[in-house]
Amino acid sequence: MKFDTPAGQNPIDQLKVVGRPTSRVDGPRKTTGTAPYAYERHNVAPNQAYGYILGAGVAKGRIVRMDISEAKAAPGVVAVVTTLDFPAPLPLGLANIAHLFGGAEVAHYHQAIAVVVAETFEQARAASTLIHTEYARAPGKFDLAKEAPDAPLAGGSRGGGSGTPPIDRIGDFAGAFAVAPVKIDRTYTTPGESHAMMEPFATIAAWEGDKLTLWTSNQMIAWSKSSLAKILSVRPENIRLDSPFIGGGFGGKLFVRADAVCAALAAKTARRPVKIAMQRPLMINNATHRPATIQRVQLGANQDGRLTAIAHASTSGNLPDGEPETAVSQTKLFYAAPNRETYMKLARMDLPEGNAMRAPGEAPGLMALEMAMDELAEALNMDPVELRVVNDTQFDPEKPNRPFSERHFVECLRTGAEKFGWSRRNPKPGLVRDGKWLVGMGMAGGFRNNILTKSAARIRLEKGGRLTVETDMTDIGTGTYTILAQTAAEMMGVGLDAVTVVLGDSDFPASAGSGGQWGANNSTAGLYAACLKLREAIAQRLGFNPTDTIFSDGKVTAGGHSVPLADAARGGALVGEDGFDPTDMSKRWQQSTFAAHFVEVAVDSYTGETRIRRMLAVCDAGRILNPKAARSQVIGAMTMGAGAALMEELAVDTRFGLFINHDLAGYEVPVHADIPHQDVIFLDHPDDKSSPMKAKGVGELGLCGVGAAIANAIYNATGVRVRDYPITLDKHL
Ligand code: MOS
Predict the structure, then answer these.
(1) What residues have CB less than 8 Å from 237, skipping those under 6 apart?
(2) Under DSSP, is residue 677 helix (H, G, I), strand (E, B) or coil?
(3) So what CATH class is 38-139+201-278?
(4) Residue 5 pLDDT more than 90?
(5) In the structure, what pLDDT confidence band is assigned to residue 244 with cuts at 50, 70 and 90?
């Protein structure tokens, strides 16, 4: 289905099922432990053996020798596969930067170098300690602050679109900044961060002749199927991935990781199915992380607060052929200003692979930009909400003929200020006390793009009237099952209980997948298209005129005749299959989502410990398909923002080149006690230029801007401006 196709009356607009707060249809299975995650799929293949991955013990160098004889002789061991069994690295999959297996070169710490297969997990783990590896260690670059001054300019394809010129210039930034009556010029740093999702990377692999099946945990089924075909040199039609339930991905499971590759290789050698769940202490250095950034923001404004000059430069590091963290991307679009300059620098380093994590680009980028806006507001003696209001734009500031499809940022700001009680904030910092606590309020804008992409689905009306939806779309804990069921129910005029949704199987039509907050809008739009096809087929079979046929209350009605929907399936099941194709809609309109975040914190005046007291997000993200699920997404994202502002940090050992806090004890994330009160308001303005669903992404938006709102609240509480995230208590001193 082409986007432009006039749908006539859009059945979704009825909002009988879509748009209603709806509990998860997969909730009972999740809460009773009957939704199987990859590692728990004990019945999909008989005689499963356990694989255990051994990671490299050096950050850079070459493996000289591996002695596996003791490991092979250990109790229960079925097979040992080592990277030296392959003369060269296996090909890279989509977006992989470091090779996942093969060859003697070590590109980063904990890169997989062997898999031990045994009858039990414990036997495999024990045997892995008996592998003796000799390395020729090579020097590496591990310190971003040291590498940054010489880092070359980088284009950014991830998030920015490939072919982005290295420096984006509009007008004359340097000239305008030099004469600006009010200006700030600050540098902010954000650390490396880890996805830290609850379910580890996990795969069960089984071969049947040339055919490989992987029961795995993966956000993007079609991408990963073609990646695995390339990495393993297997024809795509001989690979099947199945990933119906995912215990969190956060970007770490967008691309194929070592668990899938090692399980496939080990199953081949062991000649039986092999299951691998990557052990927690291996995950952080073996897989990907969000790269650290050093960001310089320069803002020049007139006395009335209007920005005349904006510059944002970000430096991050990555392995050779890696990409920068696209921390400047929102700065190109968020605020009006005639003179602008944005660019990124990329230092070649030897730490583990940097890649997409939780709103890549905007999440750390807004931690800098929105703190800079707070500093500018103070310099202007202006309210930070008003500063953002006067700099709003309805057009892409770099392409003035290109309007935003919908942009209600000012309404986010005004609504949030009113609901949060912003007028009670004392603009002078450090003056509000509550016993030993210093209390402050802060706010920030939120921005994240709304990506439109192809997505297909199939829906079948079966005998008895049941509807089954099939697509390779994934539910990473986001509520995809539920919004797809709502879409099918709305389109076919039935209740939610008449719909079954089956996801995550590569044999199903290829969907948008889950990433970049593009899943909800595109995958439901794909199902919308499939439902239109099924409605046509049903009308035709019943001899009804398709354009006059109404689907409602379990009945099909046209020309005064009305029959139960189930009757249409009497002559056998009917299938509708189609996809959403946004063609060039995102070229005609800039597609983005907006938020305003408000936070109140208390900082212990003796210890510097920060406690968040209240958080509010007001979100403008098109039609909200399921306010209950969307709220869960946004409060989860706000919690990630609290982590980013206050505690999450990968600590780099710059001598040996690894993240030393590589488990959930050392890598701190917020717990319930850190998040006492959260509120979310959705403006719920449908966007008819986004898709027939008129929805947009909202999950990552909830994270974008939160970190700066917390930082700004801490400044308001204490009068101490910490520009180096996370804002831990030692930095107040
Ligand atoms: Mo998201 S970091 O695109 O899964």
Answers:
(1) none
(2) coil
(3) alpha beta
(4) no
(5) very high
**Which residue is it, tokens 């804002």?**
727
The Cα–Cα gap between 131 and 82 comes to 10
Residues 552 and 433: beta-carbon distance below 8 Å: no
- Within 10 Å of residue 158's Cβ, how many Cβ atoms? 20
Q: What is the phi/psi pair of residue 538, to 5°?
A: -65, -45
- Here the tokens at position 466 are 């049941």
The catalytic residue among 353, 378, 600, 700 is 700
Q: Any residues with CB less than 8 A from the CB of 569 and at least 6 apart, and which?
A: 461, 462, 463, 464, 465
- Does the beta carbon of 515 lie inside 6 Å of ligand 1? yes
What architecture is the 11-35+453-581 domain classified under in CATH?
Answer: 2-Layer Sandwich (3.30)
* Ligand 1 atom, smallest distance to 250 CA: 4
670 lines ligand 1 (CB under 6 A): no
Looking at the DSSP bridge assignments, the partners of residue 681 are 618
Is any atom of ligand 1 closer than 6 Å to the C-beta of 326? no
Give one DSSP letter per residue of 320-375, joined into a string.
Answer: TT-----TTGGGGTSS--SEEEEEEEEEE--SSPB---SSTTHHHHHHHHHHHHHH
- Residue 360, ligand 1, Cβ within 6 A: yes
Query: Which of 243, 257, 700 to mutate to test ligand 1, by most ligand atoms within 8 A of the CB atom?
Result: 700
Per-residue pLDDT tens over the stretch 293-324: 999 999 999 999 999 999 999 999 999 999 99
Burial class (CB in 10 A: 0-12, 13-18, 19+), 401: exposed
Centre of ligand 1 to C-alpha 516, Å, is: 5
Its ipTM equals 0.97
Q: Are 684 and 696 a contacting pair, CB within 8 Å? A: no
Whether 624 lines ligand 1, by a CB cut-off of 6 Å, is no
pLDDT of 586 above 90: no
Instruction: Ligand 1, residue 518: give the atom nearest the CA.
Output: 3
Enter the tokens of residue 139.
């020097």
CB 357 within 8 A of CB 289: yes
Tokens 């002559």, located at residue: 571
What is the rounded distance in angstroms from the CA atom of residue 387 to the CA atom of residue 120? 61
Is 700 catalytic? The answer is yes
- Provide the sign of the torsion angle of the four alpha carbons 322, 313, 192, 476, taken in this order: negative
Q: Which two tokens stand for residue 102?
A: 């093969």
Domain extents in the chain: 11-35+453-581, 38-139+201-278, 147-193+290-451+588-732
CA of 219 to the centre of ligand 1 (A): 9
Tokens of residue 512, six digits: 């948008």
DSSP 671: -
18, 486 Cβ separation under 8 angstroms: yes
Question: Percent of the chain scored above 70 by pLDDT?
Answer: 98
The pTM of this model reads 0.97
Amino acid residing at 497: D
Q: How far is CA 658 from CA 85, 191, 195, 197, 580, in A?
A: 26, 14, 16, 20, 43
Contact call for residues 112 and 286 (beta carbons, < 8 A): yes
Cα(536) to ligand 1 centroid in Å equals: 36
Same fold, 38-139+201-278 and 147-193+290-451+588-732: yes
Q: Is 358 in the pocket of ligand 1 (CB under 6 A)?
A: yes
CATH number of the structural domain 147-193+290-451+588-732 = 3.30.365.10
d(CA 54, CA 659): 17
Angle at 704 between CA 199 and CA 612, to 5 degrees: 80
